[in-house]
Amino acid sequence: MKKLYLFGNWKMYLGHEESVALARDLKKQLSALSVKATMAIFPSAISLLAVKEELDGVASVGPQNVYWVEKGGYTGEISAMMYRQAGCQFALVGHSERRHVFKESNAEVRQKFEAVLNAEMTPVLCVGETMPERKDDRVEEVIEAQLRSAFMDLAWPKGRSLIIAYEPVWAVGTGESCDPSEAERVAAVIYKFVGALLDGVEPTVLYGGSVRSDNVAKYCAEPHLSGVLVGGASTKASTWLEIVSAVK
Ligand code: 13P
Where are the transmembrane segments (predicted)? Predict the structure, then answer.
């Protein structure tokens, strides 16, 4: 049976007290559910340590973004290494909101990806196309460029895990989810590209974009998908627990 991943990206939706309260609530309720999946939550940087403490034993936490230099005069940034030292195992890299709202280029995403690897965390590299790119039949082209840029000339550390989240930009935060069979088609393409670019590395591929309790099981059942990266529906105990229960 494949390993299942349930990841929740809280983005900038919750204040500190709300984050801690949600984490406390989740810990109580998740312990009773005895979930078999690997669960990770990506809270805001300011609440990460407190959330980590609350979720101890049920879920790990990770950053939504990192900076690639380890230490130095970079006001306002937090490095991948610092997150590692704070006990994080996973880190999101190249989320569509970073790429499109903050105009992060493939080259910057590459530096962050490498920094996460160097810090010995598992990168969760987010890739996906916009609706105009999909309409122009450029899905594979866009995703291949995102993957190629992240991996080009990279000496892959033997035995390291790699997670790719397929998050079509048009499905993120819109309520319009990608058809599971189409997400599976793209996941298979991602799987093939990664294997070719990284000499046989087999990534874990997740789907993200308007995942809810009524569609999560369909994504998880697809052969090339091993779970989901959820935004909005992970920020309330009720909706997150419904998602967890739906795949249990
Ligand atoms: P939504 O689940 O809110 O569409 O967000 C998905 C996402 O961006 C997860 O990283």
Answer: none
